Amino acid sequence: MKGAVDKIALLALCLLLLGPMQSFAADPTQEAILRELQALKMRVGELENKLQLAQKSAQDAQKAAAEAYATSGRSLKMSQEVAKTKSQQPEGLLTEAGKRLKVYGAIELEGSYSNRKPNNGKSVTDSDFTLSTAEIFFDATINKYTKGILHLLYEQGDTDPINIDEAFILIGQTDDMPFYFLGGRMYPAIGLFETYMVSDPITKNVFETQATAVEIGWAQDWFNVGAGTYNSSVHQASDSPDNTINTYYVRAQFDAVQDAIANGLDINAGVAYTNNIAGGNLGDEVVDDQLKDLVAGLSFMLNVQYKWAVFNAEYITALDDFQAGELSFASGKAKPYAYNLELAFMPLDKWTFAVRYEGSGDLGDFEPERQYGFNVSWNLLPDTRLSLEYLRGDYANDDERDLVTTQLAVAF
């Protein structure tokens, strides 16, 4: 910008000095100078146009980041975006580091009120304000085929004030190189957990997986496949002490090119398998991190978007029983599963309406057996969203819970 201004000032000075000499335009030397000045003027114009385009690109990038965050519902997990053929990652704000580094993030402030009524006894009420999320992403384009992602996250209640939520390297997954390698601290896409609500679905609470893993795959329009492996702390008792890579997963994703099937229609469907379903959040409930045998798991997901309506469905289940005493919340054998159904509407500019019906089984009182509710979100200002959510949960022991959550979120 400064260089363009200096050139414009120089051009103006030259024109002032040469103004009285217009009558000598027939002089070949003067004609050459005038031609050079005209060429300089055109070059300055080109630079100004490029500057305007760069500024617009930065503004569009910021808008894209906000829009991507607004439709994500909760904290973005960039490693899971790799599972989507048409990855909707926000563009972020371009820095001056050669336009190679993009920075974006979000802050979420929540107020909640919970009333849990046990089957027998007095109701218990809780309310609080929490800084539920403060996160920042650094997205570095190393070269045409290589990217590095660093995701710093703070969530109130964590023992660590701030942690490295994701840090991974992605090689490939471009138009001319569909094969890819993904490695580092990430969220293996055993489930995608998409939501338009404020609260995370039960599927995510129970089965989301975070690990230092490696994954290889192939991704192009219409189809995406991947396979990965990592070392889970949950292991077979016969392998104790265990410190070896023991968990793997495979997944396949179908993603129709938007408008290819019908105008305004986008369909995304996927399936994933893992040999160790307790490698995710469920592993926190495995007693002493030991199982007689690792329990496999399977997940299915579907996302259908038609114009201003979106339908999300996901189902995740263990494929075998955990033995009695292996899970802290189950006295006998258990075969945990969870599902989530959501319908979101965006008929009005700046407004999103969503309803959810979800449930689980063989989770004891760890999560509601059935839960349903609604959410209303309003983009009251640019990159600023206000949400109100109500959920009613019914537990296996006949407890009932009403949960009201408000959220003020900003994206940048």
Quick overview of this protein structure:
The chain is of the alpha+beta class and 412 residues long. The chain has helices at 2-18, 28-72, 78-81, 202-207; strands at 93-94, 101-117, 124-141, 146-154, 163-174, 177-186, 211-220, 222-230, 235-236, 247-255, 265-274, 290-291, 297-306, 309-318, 337-345, 351-361, 370-381, 384-394, 400-411.
Write up what this structure looks like.
This protein is an alpha+beta fold and 412 residues long. The protein contains four helices and 19 strands. The protein has helices spanning 2-18, 28-72, 78-81, 202-207, and strands at 93-94, 101-117, 124-141, 146-154, 163-174, 177-186, 211-220, 222-230, 235-236, 247-255, 265-274, 290-291, 297-306, 309-318, 337-345, 351-361, 370-381, 384-394, 400-411. A 16-stranded antiparallel barrel has the order 2-3-4-5-6-7-8-10-11-13-14-15-16-17-18-19. A two-stranded parallel ribbon has the order 9-12. A hairpin with a 2-residue loop joins strand 13 and strand 14 (309-318). It is globular.
> Distance N terminus to C terminus?
23 Å
**Radius of gyration using CA atoms only:** 27 Å
The portion of residues forming beta strands comes to 35-45%
**Strand and helix order:** HHHEEEEEEHEEEEEEEEEEEEE
Summed over residues and divided by their number, the pLDDT gives a mean of 85
Tell me the number of strands: 19
What is the number of independent domains?
2
**Full CATH superfamily name of the largest domain:** Porin
Strand order of the largest sheet: 2-3-4-5-6-7-8-10-11-13-14-15-16-17-18-19
Q: Which class do the helix and strand fractions yield?
A: alpha+beta
Low-confidence stretches at least 5 residues in length (pLDDT < 50)? 15-26, 58-67
